[in-house]
Design goal:
Blueprint: H1 2-18, E1 25-32, E2 38-44, E3 48-54, E4 59-65, E5 74-80, E6 83-90, H2 92-98, E7 106-113, E8 116-120, E9 132-135
Parallel strand pairs: 1-7
Antiparallel strand pairs: 1-4, 2-3, 2-5, 5-6, 7-8, 8-9
The structure holds 2-acetamido-2-deoxy-beta-D-glucopyranose (NAG) (3 copies).
Length: 139
C-alpha cells in the first residue's frame, strides 16, 4: 500500500507541474448565438469563474481535470436582458454526450440560443440533429 500512495503523490506532483491531467482533461466552450450580450456566471464546488459578458458570436471557455471519482460538476447562471436560467454545464450526463475521444483533451461545446441551451461534442453549424437541447430560457 505504502508504495501505491508514494506513487500517487509523485504522480499528482508531476501532473500539477506539467499542468497535464491524470484523469481526462476537459475543455468547455460556451458560445453566444444570440444577437445580444449575455452574462454567464459559472461555478463548481471548488471554483468560481465569476461573471462574464459574452458578446454575440463570442465564447467563454475554460479547462479542468476531471475528478478521480468522475463527479466533476460545473453549473452556471445566465442572464439575457430580463431572462434568466441556471443549468449544469458539466456533469456525468453531459460527459456522456461529449466524451468521444480516446486520447487527449475532450471538448464540450455549448451554444446559447434564443430558443435554449444546446450541447455537442463538436463545434458544428447549428442543427437540431447535431446539437442537443438541454434547457430553454425562463421568462
Ligand atoms: C453577475 O451578473 C448578474 C447579471 O448582470 C448580476 O445580477 C449579478 O449581481 C452579478 N454578480 C456578480 C458577482 O457580479
Ligand atoms: C478561449 O478563451 C480565450 C480567452 O480566455 C480566447 O483567447 C480564445 O480565443 C478562446 N478560444 C476559442 C476557441 O475561441
Ligand atoms: C466554432 O466554429 C465557428 C465556425 O467555424 C468558429 O467561428 C468558432 O470560433 C468556433 N467556436 C469555438 C468555440 O471553437
Amino acid at each position: 500500500m505504502h508504495s501505491i500512495f508514494t506513487f500517487l503523490i509523485l504522480l499528482s506532483l508531476t501532473t500539477s507541474i506539467t499542468h497535464a491531467c491524470f484523469t481526462a482533461k476537459w475543455h468547455i466552450f460556451v458560445t453566444n448565438d444570440i444577437n445580444d450580450d449575455i452574462v454567464a456566471h459559472i461555478k463548481s464546488g471548488d471554483d468560481d469563474l465569476g461573471n462574464h459578458t459574452i458578446p454575440f458570436n463570442g465564447n467563454y471557455n475554460w479547462s479542468f481535470c476531471n475528478r478521480f471519482d468522475g463527479r466533476t460538476l460545473f453549473y452556471a447562471y445566465f442572464w439575457w436582458g430580463s431572462r434568466y436560467q441556471s443549468l449544469d454545464l458539466f456533469n456525468s450526463d453531459i460527459e456522456d454526450i461529449c466524451a468521444v475521444k480516446i486520447l487527449g483533451t475532450q471538448n464540450c461545446y455549448w451554444l446559447v440560443r434564443s430558443n435554449g441551451f444546446f450541447v455537442s461534442a463538436y463545434n458544428r453549424t447549428f442543427s437540431d440533429r447535431d446539437w442537443k437541447l438541454k434547457k430553454t430560457w425562463n421568462y
